[in-house]
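Why do we care about 3D structure at all? Because function follows from shape, and shape follows, mostly, from sequence. That is the central idea of this module. The next example makes it concrete: a single protein chain, its amino acid sequence, and then its structure expressed as tokens.
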Amino acid sequence: MEPANGGSISQDHQHVAPDTVRLHTLEQALVGRVVLINDSAATRWNVKVGAEGLAQHVTQQVQPHAAQAPVYTADFLEKRTAVFAESDFQLSDRLAGRVGGRAEYSALLNRWNAAPRVALAYQTTERSSLSGAYGRFYQTPDNALLLVQPALRFEQATHSVLTYQYTHDQQLLQVEAYYKTYAHLTRYDGQHPRKAAAYNNGGTGYARGLDVLWRDRKSIKNLEYYFSYGFLDTKRQYRQDPVAAVPTFAARHNMSVVGKYWVGRLHTLLGATYSYGSPRRYNDLNGPEHGYNQGMLPTYQDLSLNASYITSLFGQYTIVHVAATNVLGRQNIYGYRYASQPNEVGSYNRVAVTPTAPRMLFVALFISINKNRAADVNERPE
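And the structure:
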């Protein structure tokens, strides 16, 4: 057994001032981890076992008005321990897998969980493979929720994934289908978010979808391009959702096309990325007859360009990189902020949430200081 140990200590002090409210949050954490690995090239399996511990203290003060003293203080102390084991194995020249599990105990929640996980991969041909994975995952609720109600339970997700991959001569096709279910999600009263008695773990949800990736570095000399597409069907009822609904962050269709072209005579790599997202949902306070989270935002679209020039400075390999986002200046809308009270005609005034600037320009200079690496301006960056 080969040991692999580690530890960390952290402190995060945040001051947030939305409008007249002041939030002061202090988080202190101590983490330790011990891992033992039995890995032998002569065998068809290996074993990894380990344990980890976390001690975390979070304190928050809420000051509703900047000129007043804090009127609300909350804190919690978490001590969490976990043990885990994992083994990679090979049943034949074409079939391999991984099996493992994790058990965890939270002193704050006064609960424990057990999370089994398994994966199998089968090489169908010399160029393709088929794999599947199943696993259960747990996490404690977000710190902001635990500061209001620490007597919650672990939130749970169960994943099932099936993947097909084909690769040959600098070309890659990957298709992945997945189904995920969520249980014991935290819910509360959106009108009274600090009412601890209204908190519970009755939230549920699901997500199912398909991801497709095509990568080609062969068809056109000096050109590498990617195409990816994602389909997502999901609903959740958690946090302040009154009913199960499509989350505001989920787009049903996502697509991106990325291209990189190497111009050897100019020692320059040119790049372009186009991204598309179908309309996302939002809760339209002026259209309650349509239901919760039934408002539709415009589509998201972005065309970004970049260039990397290869040169040499002081005998060292150097890259001058320039990138510009949303070069067409499309006004993407991420959501709406509504007034807290209706106006004189009974509707809520709103403003669109948009980027702070229509475009962003990024310029960088990278110098590799490495005695073992010669400055080759003809080398194409990855």
